Amino acid sequence: MASTSVSRVLPASPQQVWDLVGGFHSLPDWLPYIPESTMLEGGRLRRLVTPDGKVIVERLLAFSEAERHYSYSFVKSPFPVTSYLSILRVHPIPGNADAAEVMWSGCFTPAGVSESEAVDLFTTIYRDGLEALHHALAG
Hints:
By secondary structure, the chain is α+β, with helices and mostly antiparallel strands. The chain has a single domain, classed as START domain (Alpha-D-Glucose-1,6-Bisphosphate, Chain A, domain 4, 2-Layer Sandwich), CATH 3.30.530. 26% of the residues lie in helices and 47% in strands. The chain contains three helices and seven strands; from the N terminus they run βααββββββα. It has helices at residues 14-21, 27-30, 115-138, and strands spanning 2-10, 36-40, 45-49, 55-64, 69-76, 81-93, 96-110. It has a seven-stranded antiparallel β-sheet with strand order 1-7-6-5-4-3-2. It starts with a strand and ends with a helix.
């Protein structure tokens, strides 16, 4: 199984960051490459559509408002991996109430691509996503 993790310190309090990213269906609010999220199964699934029409269905596995994190898996995706599990987590920065660290990580089994190709793909997705989050918070 392969894995990757990207983190970024953002210029907003942990609560401000969580208010933007903490909703399982809030990706369109901060992630430009996911303009559409539809709730399914009472909110336990999200059906995402990319700008080029690709569909991703993800299942919420765990959620903690108090600890500011959630985890999810793929039910359906165009990505060359299986057994995908990802966690999005917001951490406070000790001594700095106006900053937060966001960590987006995932583990998966490559399918039809090398481990390094799969790791590079998700590292880029997570890095670009956290860059978009930074812009959403700054704008």
